[in-house]
Structure formats: C-alpha cells, structure tokens
Known about the structure:
Blueprint: H1 3-8, H2 12-22, H3 26-47, H4 50-70, H5 76-94, E1 98-100, E2 105-107, H6 122-139, H7 142-153, H8 158-165, H9 169-190
Antiparallel strand pairs: 1-2
Helix pairs in contact: 2-3, 3-4, 3-5, 6-9, 7-9, 8-9
Amino acid sequence: xxxxxxxxxxxxxxxxxxxxxxxxxxxxxxxxxxxxxxxxxxxxxxxxxxxxxxxxxxxxxxxxxxxxxxxxxxxxxxxxxxxxxxxxxxxxxxxxxxxxxxxxxxxxxxxxxxxxxxxxxxxxxxxxxxxxxxxxxxxxxxxxxxxxxxxxxxxxxxxxxxxxxxxxxxxxxxxxxxxxxxxxxxxxxxx
Length: 191
C-alpha cells in the first residue's frame, strides 16, 4: 500500500491527530476529499451561486489548516458543518442589505442610504435611522440586547455568543429571535 492509501484508511479524528503532530497537509487533503460535497452543499444553500460556493469551500478548507491546531474536535463532520454554516453567514452579513420601512425603502451601505422616490438628504436619513436603532436596542431586555449586539454588531457566531455570555445555544437563539422581533416592533414606533 502507498502512503496515500494508508492515509485514506484513517478515521477523521486519526487524520486530525496525524495532521496536528506532523503538520502534513496531505491529511487535510483526505478530509477535503471526504467532505467536499458536504461543505459545497452548505455553501450552495446559503449563496445559491456556484462560483461563490466554490470560493467559500476553498476558504473554509484553507481556514482548517490553522483551526485544526486550535480546537479539540470530537465530531469532525458536525464541527465542519457548523464552521461552514458560520462562514457563509459571516460572508452574507458583509453584503449590503435591503431594508423596508412603511414609507420608504433604503439600502444599507458603507457610504449612504436614501429613500426611494424622495429627494431628501441621504446621510440625515441614515443618521436618524441609526439613532432610532440605537435607542431601540437600549430598550431591549438585557439578555436580548447583549445577544443582538454580539451577534449582529460584533458579528460573532452562535457558539461565540454562547461562550461569551454563558448562555446555552437554545437560550442564545431564543434571545436573538425574540430580540429581533422586539427590535422590529420598537423601530416601527419611530416610523
């Protein structure tokens, strides 16, 4: 048997241990071959674009080179699924979003926001919206406010929010869901 055939016979955790001790990237290559379809499927679910998904798959596996040295992994397939999902969500958060209000629609970007069909000053509207958002966030329950700030403003993953707050995953998801709903209701009051 060749070295590659021997490597391919190893279980996921054995491959990770071998990589951590030797830093030989051929072990990651075997993991890449095993789980390429899984990671690509997760990326397609979020991006719905082949090229973006292929780029994301490569970025995720490049990230594994460093991440596998940082984490103690018990279930590689489950861990990789979460890493892939979080990567896609982080990339999607970086894109501009369309936000709808009752009287206007505006696009968030780093430079401006403007109401459709009106000739008002874009930066004033954006500043007013951001002030309203800030006031609304302050009115949230403390648990919801903390989770909203960490997840959306600091762009941490569910796992990172749970680690920083001490909440379990179900609590984090619940606080985020309820916080978003309450935030929308509070923002609607300003409109």
